[in-house]
Every structure is written in C-alpha cells, then in structure tokens.
Amino acid sequence: MSTTHDQVVGVVRAARDAAKSVARATTDQKNAALRAMADAIASRKGAILKANAQDVAEAKGAGLSNSLVDRLTLNDSRVAEMVRSVRAVIDLPDPVGEVMRTIERPNGLRIQKVRVPLGVLGIIYESRPNVTSECASLGLKSGNAVVLRGGSESFRSNEAIRDAIQEALAKTGLPAAAVGLIPVRDRVGVDVMLKLNDLIDVIIPRGGEALIRKISEESRIPVIKHAKGVCHVFVDRSADPDMAEAIVLNAKCQRPGTCNALETLLVHKEIAPVFLPRIVHALKNAGVEIRGDEQTRAVDSAVKPATEEDWSTEYLDLILSVKVVPEIGAAIEHISRYGSAHSDAIVTRDDGNAERFLAQVDSAAVYVNASTRFTDGFQFGLGAEVGISTERLHARGPMGLEELTTYKYVVHGAGQVRE
Amino acid sequence: MSTTHDQVVGVVRAARDAAKSVARATTDQKNAALRAMADAIASRKGAILKANAQDVAEAKGAGLSNSLVDRLTLNDSRVAEMVRSVRAVIDLPDPVGEVMRTIERPNGLRIQKVRVPLGVLGIIYESRPNVTSECASLGLKSGNAVVLRGGSESFRSNEAIRDAIQEALAKTGLPAAAVGLIPVRDRVGVDVMLKLNDLIDVIIPRGGEALIRKISEESRIPVIKHAKGVCHVFVDRSADPDMAEAIVLNAKCQRPGTCNALETLLVHKEIAPVFLPRIVHALKNAGVEIRGDEQTRAVDSAVKPATEEDWSTEYLDLILSVKVVPEIGAAIEHISRYGSAHSDAIVTRDDGNAERFLAQVDSAAVYVNASTRFTDGFQFGLGAEVGISTERLHARGPMGLEELTTYKYVVHGAGQVRE
C-alpha cells in the first residue's frame, strides 16, 4: 500500500515538474514531439500489439464481454488509426499564448487576457487503448502534462503506448514524465490519484456511471465529468415525416454505443397517428427494441412497456424508449426532467417552436432538424476532443484544445499605482 | 435538525424553480428589477439600519474585534453606496444570449456557441452586508438565481436587505425566490447547502482560509474559490527606485486588508544596498511592520526576523515580509513556492526580464511596473465582480458577469444526419 502510494505520487510529481517545460515549449517543439510520437507508435507497433495480445488473452480468460474485448483489441488498422490521430493534432492551432482580449485603460495600463495551459491533467478512462495516445497528444499540444489512468484490462497495452510516447518526448527534448501512466493496475491507484490536489489541476473522467460517480464523490481535485447522454428527438406536429424518420434512425442506429446517440423519442400527439406506425416499422427493421408508452404499444405488439426507469436510461444499444406528448411544452418538460442535458433535437417546420425548443431546452447541444450524433469536436469543426463534457463549469460539450487551457491577465504599466 | 434541513432545502428548491424565469428574462426586465431593487433598498433604509444596529449591538456584546464590527456596520453613506452599486449593474452589458462563435459547416449545419446563465449560484461570504445586494444584482443581471449565505453576525441585516430585494423582484414580475437567503444562522445551514448538488450549480465562497477549506472539503457542488492572495513585488536590479518605492507603498498600504495587497517584497541583491534602506525607511514611516531576512534586518534594527511561515502568510494588515534574492530566477522560484498565484509584479527597466517574469510567474494577474492593487473588475474595466477567483478552472482573477455564465451549442439544420 505504501509502495503503491509512493509509486503513484512519484509519477504524478514527475508530471508536475515536467509541466513547466511543456507550458513553455514552442509550437514547433510540441509539433516535433507529436511527429516523433506518431513515428514511435508506428515503429513500436510490434511491441504494442504483443502487449495488447496479452491483455486480450487475459480479458477473454476472465470472461469479459465480447463488446469489451472488441473495444480492447488492437490490430494493424487500429494502430494506424492511432498514428493518424496523433498526426492530426499537429495541424490543430496551438491555443497557448493566444491573446483573448486586450484592454487599454485610461490610466495607460495595458491588460491582456492570455491563454495558458491548465497544468497537469488527470485523465481516467476505460478499455480502449487508443484513448491513451489521443489524450497524450491533445494534452501536449495544449501545453499540459498528463497523468493517464486507463482501464486495468488494458494496462499492458497502455504501458507499451506510454513507452513509445516517452521515447518520442525524450528524443525531442521534452521531459518524458510529461506523459505519465498510473503505474499500478488496481483501484488503489485511482484512490491515491484523486487526493493529490496539490499536484493535479483537473480530473477528466470518461466512462460508465459507476466510475464517474465514484470519482465525483472522492476527488479532492476539480472534476470535469464526461457522463451519460440521455438524448432526445422530439418530432413536432409540423415535422416533415421523411426528415423525422431519417433523423431518428440516424441518431439511434448509426452508432448506438456513443453518448450522443438517441435514447428517447418524443412524438407530438397530432402527428403520432401517421408517424408512429411508420417509425416503429422502420426501427424494427433496423433491429431496434422499442419500449413505449400506451399509445406506442397500441401500434405494434412487439413494443414492450416502458417503465419509469426507462425514461432516464442511457441504453448505449439498439433499444429506444418512445412516448407521445400532448404538445411542445410537455416535450421540453420531459427532457428537463429525465434528460442528462447532453444533446437534444426537435424536428419541426414551425420556426416559433424551433426557437422555443432551442431556448428552453438547457442542454450542451440543442438541434433543430438535425441528428444528435453531430455533438462531436470534429463534427463541430473544433478539431479533436478528449470527450464531451456534461458539466456547466469551464467546458460544456466537446472538450478540445481550448477547453484544456485557462488564462491569465498580463498587465504592462509605467509605474501606475491605485488612487 | 430536520426542520433546519427542510428550511434550507425549501429556499434552495424555490431558487431552482425561479432560475428558469430569470434565465428567460429579457435585459429590460432584469434592468427594471435592478432599478426596483435599488429603490427598495433606499426606501427601506430605516428597516435595514435598524436590523443592522441589532446585529452590531450583538457583535459588540459578543466581543467581536473592532475591524469586524466596522465591516459589519451600515450607515447612511454605506446604504447609499449599496444603492449606487446596484444601479451600476444596470449599465453593464447583459452577457446572456451573446453569440460567442458561429461555425458554418460544409454540410450546411449552422452551429452557434451561445452564452447562457449558470443556473443557481450558491454564494457564501462573511461580515459585510453590502455583499448581499452586490451578489444579488450581479447574479440577476447574468440570468441566475442566487442563494446567499452571509456571516451569522450579519444575519438580521442580510434578512432586511433580502426583504427589499424580494419586494422589488415581485413588483417587477420576477419570482421573489430568485434571490434566496439561507434561513438559519448556524453552521448547519452551510452543511445542508453544500450537499444539494442537484439544486445548486456552483458554490462561490469568499472569506477566510478556514471557511474556504471547510467548503472545499465538504462541498458536493463544484466550488470556485476566492481564496487568499499572497502577492509579491520583485524589485529587479534595473528598477527605477522612485517607481519601485511608489509601487511598493501603494501595493502594501493603500488598502492592506484586500486580497490584492502586497505581502512579500523581493529585492535583487544588486539594487538592495541602495533600495533596501530607502524602502525600509519609507515603510516604517507608513506604519508598516517589517519582517525580513538577514540582509534586511541588517538595514534597521526595527526589522523583525521573518520565519519560514511568514513567506506564505497573507497578513491583510500593515505587515510586510522582505527578502533579498540573488537574481530574477530566484524571485520567480520564491513566488512559485510560497505565493498563492493571485497577483505578482516586477519593477524593472529590462524588457527581457519583464517578459520572462510575465511568462514564468503563473498567477491570475502578472504585472510589470504597476501596483498589484489593480487586480479588480472595475480597475480592469470589466465592471463589477463577485470577487477574485483563485481557481484555474472556469474563472481566474476578477469574476464578473461573463464568468457567471456558461454556454450551449445551438445547431440549425435542414435534415442533416451523420454519415
């Protein structure tokens, strides 16, 4: 226990020390390190795949689910994708040093609000080993040191990726410790990490509800949660049924395991007689299990009854809850009560209702006539992201390079004193 | 206990419900409410002063310090100042609804990043009753509901001010509950408040170290701390001695009880033989107690020895610690080790050293050739503030109307789905 504690503190303290060098690194230095990181991951592919094969074998032996094993598994094309992701960060603009605002005061003071790195990022995630290189590259480009804690099932894969990254950092003159990995597999590593509020500036957790809850409750460090997305589409009375069907199918089926996928469909009662049979049919054909209220169940005997719990459930699967609502106010009220303020959409031809929905639904992203699946840094044109924040403070929605920074006020004077 | 709990939850839940109306209020509505608030405070001056006199009598009876009693005491001119402060918020620009960024995507999606209120602000402070009306007016203008918790010694004064504010809100059609006051005097009120993470979006504590520490440790709600300012002035080798003296005296003496006042003076060893005797003399004349290292003590027998603890102490009084450093790097190192990352200044005629100091001192505000006392929303030209944040996340430095908001992404489509 004491050894575990010391090991974790050692990695985190080294990252803290390295943070100063990374914060001061020029854009060229950071880009050179990113290029070297991409190269090192490519050239160490053999070692990474070997470590991953051990993780996968152990996961299968432990009886982990197929979907978990799939998320864990690396192969040639997934490593190539990791390399591409790191290279893509080179082209993103460096946020550090940006003058966000300049204020010239009557007394001659020149006050500049300048973007600076946050410091040391603690990122906690599960399963997919490619998150390791993604978070390392985004942290580095935004001038931060990072301490990573992946899932215990991907421990060896993450170590192999970390080794490649640290080799690249050292080769390009940046401290290897700027990208650290919590060096113990069991949960104690996280427990120790969450208490180090003098060494880590922010904890960014990505993962299931249990993980996020544990971290929120135990962390002494500010947390920017990437929690669940219970996303809605409301099909208004005036919706174009073709458009509504396309949006619902896309939001539910295009990639159901993501946080911006549709979980609950709300249908205006006046369009329900036409639209419900049609969408239930289309969803069934797409292999979606439907859990509906009474009106939805009347459409098709295959529709299961939705329980109270369904309305706040993130299925992350081909399951959809469906409810008929009397009017737009009831839809907004339902979203406010059961939703998770992630991504919600209205399909309508009524501009007034569109604007009302956009104004009154208080979610990170609100849509009119588009799929909720667009809530994503790349899709928004913001570049890569460490995830989708479900916080209200600091960063909301896609959290990219800018959101990994803070600012300071830089003031130039000529002897001014306060009256 | 159960009654206290229910009373606190009642006020907070009412604020949560009121938050929607305040978030949707137009700028005109909010300004009308602010005007009515100012009028109501002015017209209820008698009741406010009477309640305050009771608080003051009790505080004196309980043997509170003179400075605390002074902070607590209201009179005609202080009430007039409260009224002026509320009116000043009317002229500030409304941050809500500002389109911070518009992104037009190749697929035709129009994505707008729009400023929205944070929701319900929990503000915890001590002593000065004018904070009640200041925070209420800033919270309202930024579209938030607020739940206020002042010092127990100013409980009756705060109630009287709250009554005036609620009367004004009701008169102008906004829910009175949008400005709530925790209705119990003892500490249990805070304990209950800090657990209501479903009802309060952020806790903003202003006060002494013990209060801030307690809140940071116990809050289940994100906290934006307004903690201590251990501020430095470094007088570089090339400093203009006249300018350096004026800045040091101003930063220390102009209002020593504030968080942006100077607490530690660092002097380059090459200018020390000339500058130290001069500044020690000037500080003594200004009534400042000096606690110095060996070199400073050699200048004047009145200089007391500084202990290790002095270097990280916020005196908030006419006391100053003084140290001679061998070069600028040592000054930066000292500030990084002992400072609180609030406001730090260099006095120099060397542009290279100025830029090095500004870049490497990682504080909310860094100055070259100006007094640290300028770290203030009004002095920065940002308008009124709820305080000076010592956080790195969300808001750093002066926290005004913009910092009391978050944003959401508003997306207009024409049927777009993700490929």
Summed up, what is this model?
The structure is a homodimer of 419-residue chains. Chain A is 42% helix and 20% strand.
Description:
Two copies of one chain form a homodimer. Chain A is α/β, with parallel strands linked by helices. The first copy, chain A, has two domains: about 1-225 and about 395-410, Aldehyde Dehydrogenase, Chain A, domain 1; about 230-375, Aldehyde Dehydrogenase, Chain A, domain 2 (3-Layer(aba) Sandwich). Chain A is built from 14 helices and 16 strands. Chain A has a seven-stranded parallel sheet, with helices on both faces. In chain A, strands 5-4-3-6 form a four-stranded parallel sheet, sandwiched between helices. In chain A, helix 5 (about 75-90) packs parallel to helix 6 (about 130-140). The longest helix of chain A has 23 residues, at about 1-25. The N and C termini of chain A lie far apart (about 55 Å). The model of chain A has no long low-confidence stretch (mean pLDDT about 95). Chains A and B meet through helix 10, helix 14, strand 13 and strand 16 of A and helix 10, helix 14, strand 13 and strand 16 of B.
